[in-house]
Amino acid sequence: MQQRTLARSISVTGVGLHSGERVQLSLHPAAIDHGIAFRRTDLPDSKMIKLTPELINDTRLSSTIVTPEGVRVGTIEHMMSALAAYGIDNILIELNAPEIPIMDGSSLPFIYLLQDAGVVDQSAQKRFLRIKKPVRIEEPGKWVGFTPYEGFRITLTIAFDHPVFNRSNQTYQIDFSGQSYVEEIARARTFGFMQEVELMRSHNLGLGGNLNNAIVIDDMDVLNPEGLRYADEFVRHKILDAVGDLYTLGHPIIGAFEGFKSGHAINNALLRQTLATPEAFEWVSFPDDQLLPAAFHALPKVAS
């Protein structure tokens, strides 16, 4: 399978969920082996930042790049999730603010951007990280792990003792060999509790949040007039986040990911632990697409 980039550049304007700042976001094609990189155009002499899991250094309610020089690119997980869905290997992402725009709180607007830009194959092989041995991270009340699996499968469980959550499934599994990310995951929005809003804002978080870009929950119910997009939208959004968090690796993963009460910090810790355990993984490519695991045959088609 070949590497992929965009057919053309595309831009959009939105608002940062936590910063509340207006953001101009531009996505550009990039050369073979360029990887996924960011540039803050609002900063003087801004350098390109090539994404790695080790640069995710702020995980308060989002996955945020913080470079050794203190340059921040926040809330990247929803856009990263869309890039994973399309198998984008090489892209330059420019923005004129410290945070990716939240759009509607899901990854669907980023999917539309990629569709509009078009996706093209490049003349080099895509690299995959294949899990060879289990890797697990445990923290008080939560855990995540990889196990070997010839495909890509995610199983997540959330646990909220609240009337809204008690009415829906809190466990969801998706196997990308037979299920569609765009249909089953992409529309799921981020969510939060009304009583947390003041606390978040006292820490300069959630300043751009509203009912147009997040599900807001009070003591008993969902406040959004339109209700939920899926009956189990909450756990599906956690899967959306996990797909994005794992794609900070910049390469697809061949394996199964499972978690209980996962979040950005523990997802990132799992990636770092995996990379620090050489016997747990290997890098592979597939010059013959017939040998490609079925989960990756389902990547959306490239532009003609």
Distance between the termini: 17 Å
Shape: globular
Radius of gyration: 18 Å
Category from helices, strands and their pairing: alpha+beta
Which bin fits the share of residues in helices? 10-25%
Describe the structure.
The protein has 304 residues and is an alpha+beta fold. Helices cover 21% and strands 30% of the residues. A hairpin with a 5-residue loop joins strand 6 (56-58) and strand 7 (64-66). The longest helix has 14 residues, at 233-246. The radius of gyration is 18 Å and the shape is globular. The model has no long low-confidence stretch (mean pLDDT 94).
Structure summarized in a few sentences:
This protein has 304 residues and is α+β, with helices and mostly antiparallel strands.
Element layout with pairings:
Elements: E1 2-6, E2 10-15, E3 22-29, E4 36-40, E5 49-50, E6 56-58, E7 64-66, E8 72-73, H1 77-86, E9 91-95, H2 108-117, E10 119-125, E11 128-131, E12 135-139, E13 142-147, E14 152-157, H3 163-166, E15 171-175, H4 181-184, E16 191-193, H5 197-202, E17 215-217, H6 233-246, E18 253-260, H7 264-275, E19 281-284, H8 294-297
Parallel strand pairs: 4-9, 11-18, 14-18, 16-17
Antiparallel strand pairs: 1-10, 2-3, 3-9, 4-5, 6-7, 7-8, 11-19, 12-13, 13-18, 14-15
Helix pairs in contact: 1-2, 1-6, 6-7
Identify the notable features of this structure and list them briefly:
five-stranded mixed β-sheet; 30% strand; seven-stranded mixed β-sheet; 304 residues; alpha+beta
